[in-house]
Design brief:
Blueprint: E1 7-12, H1 19-28, E2 33-35, H2 36-44, H3 51-57, E3 62-63, E4 66-67, H4 69-76, H5 80-104, E5 110-114, E6 129-134, H6 137-145, H7 152-160, H8 165-171, E7 174-177, H9 182-197
Parallel strand pairs: 1-5, 1-6, 2-5, 6-7
Antiparallel strand pairs: 3-4
Length: about 200
């Protein structure tokens, strides 16, 4: 008999949509969650496996504390070629951490891959269900502009590199609303978890 593998839920959403809070709800309900952003921080942090290659490609952007985000950001901001170079370094390292996560939890009924750019890249091909976290634009904008150091220019620059929310919603198997009350959000997450686990979650 072929071993059963977990149902893979691909969790994604644009900046300020509330994806991190949704991921925490999945964890609360007992589903292991792979956090791609945390994986990026790990491979770029102190002793991170990507540091030597990043330093070679972008001299002076790393140190004992890992990547200097300001310096690296300045090196790739507005430079598509430099950004692609960085992605070729970071993405394989993050991919290896995801493979380890999958192996560790291969006996579970369901797992969650929290990947911000799931639909912008090829990641959607490796999941069984695409869950898009979404909120009205005015809610998204208010959340993002409330972040320390965020400006309208930075916000719109991020949006330029992300698939529009309307298109993500069309590609989703399920949309998790976060701008219309916490109860609706939790009920949607719980329904997804129940269906994926094939068991009742109170």
């Amino acid at each position: 008999m072929k071993p059963r593998r977990p149902i893979v839920i691909g969790l994604t959403g644009s900046i300020g949509m509330g994806k991190s809070k949704v991921a925490s709800k999945f964890r609360h309900l007992g589903l292991p969650v792979f956090d791609a952003d945390a994986a990026v921080r790990e491979v770029q942090g102190p002793g991170g496996v990507a540091l030597p290659a990043i330093e070679a490609a972008f001299p002076g952007t790393t140190g004992p504390a890992g990547v200097d985000r300001a310096k690296l950001g300045a090196a790739v901001f507005g430079n598509p070629e430099a950004l692609r170079k960085l992605e070729k370094i970071v993405h394989p390292a993050v991919g290896e951490l995801q493979r380890r996560f999958r192996r560790k939890h291969r006996g579970r009924r369901a797992i969650v891959l929290d990947i911000p750019l799931l639909l912008e890249g090829e990641g959607w091909k490796t999941v069984d269900l695409i869950a898009v976290v979404s909120a009205p634009f005015h809610v998204q904008r208010a959340r993002v502009l409330a972040r320390p150091g965020m400006t309208r220019e930075k916000f719109h620059n991020v949006l330029k590199h992300q698939m529009p929310d309307a298109r993500k919603r069309r590609l989703a198997d399920v949309v998790i609303e976060t701008g219309r009350g916490r109860l609706l959000t939790f009920r949607t997450v719980r329904a997804i978890a129940r269906a994926s686990l094939g068991s009742r979650i109170s």
